[in-house]
Design a protein that fits this description.
Elements: H1 3-8, H2 11-18, H3 21-30, E1 36-37, H4 38-42, H5 49-61, E2 65-70, E3 73-78, H6 81-109
Antiparallel strand pairs: 1-3, 2-3
Helix pairs in contact: 2-5
């Protein structure tokens, strides 16, 4: 299994990738389903193409974007599946906290 696949299975990699405003804005641009080049993703921003590329590599490592090489350009697309894994993880943690708070309430009310 590749390193990118290992990281994609890890909720920490997903949350780390989503923890940056620039990466969130890149995902927002990609969320309409259209594959975009680095040039289009960097247009209208103060980011260099190199900076956009670095952010895209983090997102790709977390499995949130995919890339396809077309001629000299790489086109990036949003891959929403890891968000489902992150949601499942958050629901699990939430359930654990609900259980812990329920036990605390029972203890305090005794």
């Amino acid at each position: 299994m590749s390193k990118a696949r290992d990281e994609a299975a890890d909720p920490a990699a997903i949350f780390a990738a989503l923890g940056d405003g620039t990466r969130l804005s890149l995902l927002e641009k990609l969320s309409d389903g259209e594959a975009l080049s680095i040039a289009k993703l960097s247009a209208g921003t103060r980011l260099t193409r190199q900076a956009v590329t670095k952010h895209l590599h983090v997102l790709e490592g977390a499995g949130l974007v995919t890339s396809a090489r077309i001629g000299r350009e790489s086109l990036y697309s949003f891959a929403p599946a890891p968000l489902g894994a992150a949601r499942t993880y958050l629901e699990s943690v939430s359930a654990q906290w609900d259980d812990a708070l329920g036990r605390l309430k029972d203890f305090v009310e005794r």
